[in-house]
Automatic annotation (TrEMBL):
Gene3D superfamilies (UniProt xref): Hotdog Thioesterase
Start and end residues of each FAS1-like dehydratase domain: 6-134
The protein's name: MaoC family dehydratase
GO MF assignments: (3R)-hydroxyacyl-[acyl-carrier-protein] dehydratase activity
GO biological process assignments: fatty acid biosynthetic process
Length: 144
C-alpha cells in the first residue's frame, strides 16, 4: 500500500502555452473535426475570435504534472503495475490558442480496495487571467 502520508502532496505548477498547431494536431489525432478547432477563418468569426481547444486537450496541458506524479520516486510506484483507472473533468472556461495555462496537482486519495491500491491526483488548470479553466481527477490502479 502506498503510504497515506502522501495525501495532500502538491506538485508545482507547470506552464503550457497553447498553440493552434498543437490544437489542430490533437483534434485530428482524436478524430474531432470541429471547425472551431481546425479552421482559422471560421474560428475567427465565432464568438471566441480564434481557434479553441477541444475540452480533453486538458490532458495535454496537464501532462507534465501527471508525469511528475507518476515518476515521483518517493511514492515508489511500480510503473509496470499501474493501470489507468478513470478520470473526471470539470470545464469552466474555453481554452484558446495563445492562452498560457498553469496546471498544479495534489494527491487527493490513496486507498486499498479488493486487494488493489488506488491513488488519485487532482489537477487545477488556470489561464493567464487567473481563471480556472479545468479541474480534473486522474485515478490510477496499482496491481500487486
Amino acid at each position: 500500500m502506498i503510504d497515506p502520508k502522501f495525501i495532500g502532496r502538491k506538485y508545482s505548477p507547470m506552464t503550457y502555452e497553447v498553440c493552434k498547431e498543437k490544437i489542430k494536431e490533437y483534434a485530428r489525432a482524436v478524430g474531432d473535426l470541429n471547425p472551431l478547432y481546425l479552421d482559422e477563418e471560421q474560428a475567427k468569426s465565432s464568438q471566441y475570435g480564434r481557434i479553441i481547444a477541444p475540452p480533453l486537450f486538458a490532458a495535454i496541458y496537464a501532462r507534465e504534472v501527471l508525469e511528475n506524479w507518476v515518476l515521483d520516486s518517493e511514492l515508489s510506484l511500480n510503473l509496470p503495475m499501474i493501470v489507468h483507472g478513470e478520470q473526471e473533468f470539470e470545464f469552466f472556461k474555453v481554452v484558446k490558442a495563445g492562452d498560457v495555462i498553469a496546471t498544479e496537482g495534489r494527491i487527493a486519495e490513496i486507498y486499498e480496495k479488493k486487494g488493489l491500491n488506488f491513488i488519485s491526483l487532482e489537477t487545477i488548470s488556470i489561464n493567464q487571467q487567473g481563471e480556472v479553466v479545468t479541474r480534473a481527477v486522474w485515478r490510477m490502479v496499482i496491481r500487486r
